[in-house]
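pasting for the record
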Amino acid sequence: MNFSPTPQSLAWQVRLQAFMDEHIYPLEPTYAPDHLPALQAHARAAGLWNLFLPELGLSNLEYAPLCEIMGRVPWAPEVFNCSPPDTGNMEVLARYGTPAQKAAWLTPLLNAEIRSVFCMTEPAVASSDATNIAATIVRDGDSYLLNGRKWWTTGAGDPRAKLAIFMGKSNPEAPRHQQQSMILVPLDTPGVKIERLLSVYGYDHLPHGHGELSFTNVRVPAENLLLGEGRGFEIAQGRLGPGRIHHCMRLLGVAERALEYLCRRAKSRVAFGRPLSEMGSLRAEIAHSRIEIEQARLLTLKAAYLMDTVGNKAARTEIAAIKVVAPNVALRVLDRAIQVHGGAGVGPDFPLAAWWANARTLRLADGPDEVHLESIAKWELGRTTER
């Protein structure tokens, strides 16, 4: 396997890094949403727009390093229209949408004229098993009626959010993985209500927010259904593969930043008569951080390579593995950086605590660690034969 960057990938990395240096890093401490339209206009003019789309010609392996560069500043992906949940929703529409659905929703999303949300997780069931989904999608003439409650709907608090992809049970008598469907729901449809916005370890994540939404007799046209009744689980699996690569590489960008903070603090602070950077225990933690980041990056790049060469199904072990490895590595490095900053590490003067809170959520998003570990173990046991 060759994970060396192609000339095309290197060229994109250079362009993206130059943009980050010129436009993103100078704003990082004082960024406000008001800056976004101008930044997006600059990115679009520079050709750094919708980089995740296969139509741009980048493979998963070539796009992965770009995610890491963008991920070094958590709000940066939106500047390039490469932020979740829109990227996953755009991929769903591009892959499964009808021409009419694409015209109505994909085009404005590609142009960043609107934003979207993904309504899957529910408060009343263990949503790590998608077949538990209890919200309902019931055919009623030439429309569907939707009922249920969803939460951790990322982006629900953003006034630009206009569309939800809603997953619910439409065929309860079908086989277990063919009971669910996905349907497009304009967020201004009667019966859709944001019940509350949820904080994450005390952080509001404004303006996007994470919402708890109720759907009460929400009526949408039958043509809003994606792919067909009973295809929701299939769509969900197709949506999650590339998204996990993106999440993991962005997390590695955060981990690299955390290691930089750790090293700068260690060199600048003196305790007990000598710089922290001369203390053996801290030097070992710096070394472990570098090793762990490199290991996680290589595994993530291997997963991207296999997705490109043999497909998502064949790469499922590696995709599941990186979803466990990357958040845990980022959290360990962030924890070390927080520790060396002392009280400042848990306060608002440095971004480390906010980064830690976000990374911690990603041990749950796109499936908790336990689900991925169970899957990996099942596949390993299945391919082991008696001799």
